[in-house]
Amino acid sequence: MAADGGAGAAAGRDHESSAALSQARADAPADWDAVVLSSFGGPEGQDDVIPFLRNVTRGRGIPDERLEEVATHYRANGGVSPINAQNRALREALETEMRARGIQTPILWANRNWDPYVADVLRQLHQDGKDRVLVLATSAFSGYSSCRQYREDYGVALEETGLVDQMTVRKIRQYYDSQGFLIPFVEGLQTALTQITEQEAFQDGPVRILFAAHSVPDVDGLTSGPEQMRDQFVGGSAYVHQLLAASREIMNRIGGATGETPEWELVFQSRSGSPKVPWLEPDVNDAIEKAAEDGATGVIVVPIGFVSDHMEVIWDLDTEAAETAGEQGLAFIRTATPGTHPAFVSALVDLLEQRMVGRDAPPRVSACAEGTWFDTCAAECCVKVLRGATEPRPTISQRTPAEPLPVGLDDVAAVVQA
User: Fold this and answer.
1) Can you spell out the DSSP letters for 18-33?
2) 46-56 as b/e, with b when 16 or more CB fall inside 10 Å?
3) Cβ neighbours of residue 111 under 8 Å, at least 6 residues apart?
């Protein structure tokens, strides 16, 4: 009885410490005129594909002939990226949840690379007299493309529209550690672990779990998170650290429910650019081949780095990774992204409500970290390293002892090894 009481008291202190740290990273609640769901954007038809890719690669001088090589992914899907329909559905689900809670703040949608563009949405909001805007990005993890670039999108748009001194724009924090973000992955993985044994390709053998996220250049991974905190992150990378923390929490819950934990690792996908520039590894396809070599008879890919089933999920995982698994004779399942799962939608509205004055918002709680992420990021957080620049890759010894790599998964060391 005493031992149980001590453990309970310790857990209570840990929760209090986490809550205190989370609150220290919180901005004061305020009044907001509008919420904008902000995303990457995608083409809506064959004629949109090349103009869209020009937007994505603007400033890099890539000729249309090269862009057509990438366009094949969209061409195979009728020239339509599923991301736009998914964001429309998410915006509608968020609005429904907000209204159910009595939050009447309008919620709009804006994109970085396709209509509706950020600048156009801000211009319209200003014309409507709505000058205090809260931005919710469709990206859960820290990094340049997944966080800072969204803030830059709005900074550039305010400059372009001449509204810098007339509008206030703030961004919702990263939410990789939200219960509502993790729950859909846990549920999907639990289902997949049962379903994969029913596939014809499955033999009576181990299943390898692969948590997949978008790869980035090593130098970008190393500049994710605040500079003064990087010695606290696995390999000095907030992006890798957060991905491992979320994946580990999901597997802890799986193990708690089933009594055993399958082998798992963090893998990456969708790398692009010069092969001379090192990007985060291992690639998902290499990891699938390695799983077969190790005697696995099935692989389950969990797209932990994504909030919806957009093009890089349905092409790089549902097409290429599935083909690799087939070539290796492995059973294969890719679990769903959060999408409009009720727990995810509810969690996102929690994040909004926590920033709104006069609301009885749920407490700021992290499911897998010491405290939630910052509402206001430091100036040097997730800076973009100029293309062509290089920095040493971190070694395994640079990870913090308090946050070890998953036991028994040697391949994941490639993420943080030279």
Assistant:
1) HHHHHHHTPPPPB--S
2) eebbbebbebb
3) 38, 39, 40, 41, 84, 87, 117, 118
Cross-strand bridge partners of residue 109: 37
Nearest to 310 by CA among 54, 90, 55: 90
- Whole-model pTM: value is 0.88
> Is 150 flagged in the annotation as binding?
yes
Sign of CA dihedral 109, 105, 146, 93: negative
Quickly name the fold that domain 24-175+342-354 has: Rossmann fold (3.40.50)
Tally of helices (H runs) and strands (E runs) in the chain: 13, 8
Closest by CA position to 244, among listed 387, 380, 160, 141:
141
**Structure-token match 């971190």, residue found:** 394
Q: Closest Cα partner for 337 from 178, 189, 136?
A: 189
Residue listed under structure tokens 């931005």: 135
Average pLDDT of adjacent 10-residue blocks, the chain of 418 residues: 36 58 92 98 95 91 90 92 97 98 98 97 98 98 95 96 97 98 98 95 93 95 93 94 97 87 94 87 97 97 97 95 98 98 98 96 93 93 68 35 28 21
Report domain 179-339+373-415's class: alpha beta
**Domain spans, the chain:** 24-175+342-354, 179-339+373-415
Domains 24-175+342-354 and 179-339+373-415 share a fold: yes
DSSP 341-359: -HHHHHHHHHHHHHTBTT-
Question: Do the annotations mark residue 312 as ligand-binding?
Answer: yes
- 337: tokens are 């992204």
Q: Are 249 and 151 in contact (CB under 8 A)?
A: no
39: closest CA among 120, 112, 141, 92? 112
Pair 25, 369: CB distance under 8 Å: no
Q: Is the dihedral of CA 305, 73, 280, 265 positive or negative?
A: positive
The residue behind tokens 């672990």 is 193
239 is in an annotated binding site: no
**What count of residues does the chain have?**
418
Please indicate if the annotation marks 241 as binding a ligand.
Answer: no
Q: From its phi and psi, is residue 408 left (phi > 0), alpha (psi between -120 and 50) or beta?
A: left
